[in-house]
Amino acid sequence: MLPAQRAVLSAMAQDEQARALDQAMDWMVRLNSGRAQARDHAAFARWRESSPAHDAAWTRLQERLGQSLRAIEQLDSRLPGQDARIGNLLRQPMRRSALKALLAAVGVGTGAWLADRVVPLGTLTADLQTRTGQRRAFALADGSQLALNARSAVDVDVAAATRQAVLREGDVVARVSPAAERPFLLMARHVSVVARQGRFLVSQGEARTRVFALAESLQLRAAAGGERELLPGRGVTVDALGRWQPVTGSATGAEWEQGYLSASPLPLGEVVAALRRYTPAVLRMSPEAAALPVQASLPLDDVDRALRALVDTQPITVRRYSPWWITLDTQRGA
């Protein structure tokens, strides 16, 4: 056989393997969707038996999935809570995007402990989601749009009678299409936002949630009780106790849509928390450094450049122990 013929046959075999693996993923999602019936299992058996490539692809997929899950289980000693999060994931119907993300999480060559830094494991089953370093806008059926910051996730329910979304993690800018009889409800950890039209930001943290009315008024309902109206151009934070705090400064908090962070000012700890969404590296810092006030405009898509800018303008040091582990400290503490 001529070399050219061998190359053609090799390419054809690779294409067949790729198609078979793609079909195997579709079958895994279908069989784990929670809606599979006996005829689906019978059709799968026929597919698997119809070609050695199909059987090999299914076996390979199961092996890769098992490796990914075992690696994720190892995260619990380094990133507490991952066992519970992966358990929740496996109890929910599987989506193709979640399966692909799970398989990719350990295949990035950075070690199992970085899996959650690349793909947020706790939100793999969300309707809308972004990974580390990814921003994305999603169009909804009613004409509204949700723009998600990196490492953010939202569940949506837009139907004839309802328009609502749940912010599971991160930041979202909502552009609400007018519908007088169907106000848009966005629920976050500490507060719910009701809008009939306009544009607003919701940024969810562990301790508090920030809301900014970018256009049109909003009705806010704290999870702990209490309501208020938020006028256009105003912002507020709400904590678990229902305490309201006006947002000061010129930054809206939605500057990430344009790819930068506006600190005017912010504690360095909050600045670094924003940068963590854009790098798989672990960014650690001392409490003394976290308390430093920062006033700057920093690029989100180039974390190395942002860190250099912080070193140039703040009394801090940045040390890199590997591409995946970076520490920040005050110059005095270094």
Automatic annotation (TrEMBL):
Domain FecR N-terminal: 22-62
Gene Ontology terms for molecular function: sigma factor antagonist activity
All copies of domain FecR protein, residue ranges: 127-212
Range of residues in the leader sequence: none
Membrane spanning stretches: none
PANTHER family named in the record: PERIPLASMIC SIGNAL SENSOR AND SIGMA FACTOR ACTIVATOR FECR-RELATED (PTHR30273), PROTEIN FECR (PTHR30273:SF2)
The protein's name in its UniProt record: Fe2+-dicitrate sensor, membrane component
